[in-house]
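1st attempt posting a full record on here, be nice pls
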Amino acid sequence: MKDILLINVSGEDKPGVTSTLTKLLSQFDVTVLDIGQAVIHDQLNLAILAAIPAPVKVAEVTEGLQRCLAPLQMKAKFLPISDERYQNWVEQQGKPRHMVTLLARKIDAIHIALVATVCADYQLNIDKIVRLSGRVHLDDSDKLGRACVEFSVRGEAENPQQFRNSLLELASQHDIDIAYQEDNIYRRNRQLVVFDMDSTLIDAEVIDELAKEAGVGEQVAAITEAAMQGEIDFKQSFSQRMALLKGLDVKVLQSVAERLQLNEGAEHLLKTLKRLGFKTAIVSGGFTYFGHYLQSILGVDYVYANELDIEDGLVTGRVKGDIIDGQRKADLLRELADKEGLVLQQVIAVGDGANDLPMLNIAGLGIAFRAKPLVKASAKQSISNLGLDGILYLLGYSDKDIQLLN
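the predicted structure (as tokens):
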């Protein structure tokens, strides 16, 4: 029969604490059932769940630990664990684990308190909390930058959709982003990211920019907005907008392309994804001309978009081939996954409009970026307050991880 003892050691971090502790335990042939260690601002917290074999007395172990830790000025606490409690802990193994990721320009105590409260309300136990964003100088602690804290939670919400809705409401009220995703084998094994282009990678709708050049900007913008909100069919709206561009001189395409602005974090995200070995794609209801322009800047691997029909240097008001709508975007995502030898769980999709929802819904990780209300409410995850590179946090990468790539 073995006694089970939880050992908690704390104090100022210094070399030799773990080795001193475990060497002493080894003298008693102790089995380590669990171990965890964290250092916050040079303060060490180390816990070991130890099985002490008979005939060793628990008091012998605790007294020995106190003696060897005293010169290191470390404090130790001991908690006997009953067989029943230990068995309950063992049975927790294999139960669902989820990650709740809090993203904001600045994280205050109230944000963490609110997230923790919602988790508790739905009977989810927080196992671990980790800061993924980099350290901040004290002088900059009140400034708006970007911050991320990741909560590892154990259990399954009784009503997952209601739990998601509670997090979404919380995020909306406090201008923060909160993601909730299963912590499974695919989370760090995703290998393809598919982006919408207009209002996702860039901060404009290209067709609206072309319409300004054609003198029909307000008419086209109104149709575009209705389509992105999901109020009218995308193909129908696209045909209406294209017809208004008839006669546009193709010479304006280059100038429109050159004035397009990348959305915040786009360049950093694409550069980092490439270094991490991801494949990337633009799948857009926009136009190939601009997709290829962005490809030359960002190094995107694949581009799928509508090709403008041009005759005698003028836009005809039509496109070549079938219009890429929401369903076609989802189909292309599937085709790209097959081409790369991936399952859909290994694919990330990012978009902002209603026509992006089909691909967001089938991807392993679908992210609505600065999206319309309908899309934000329907997508699995959303980012509205940080830039595109906030996606790296949802994948579990810290700022420190990314710095090591440079």
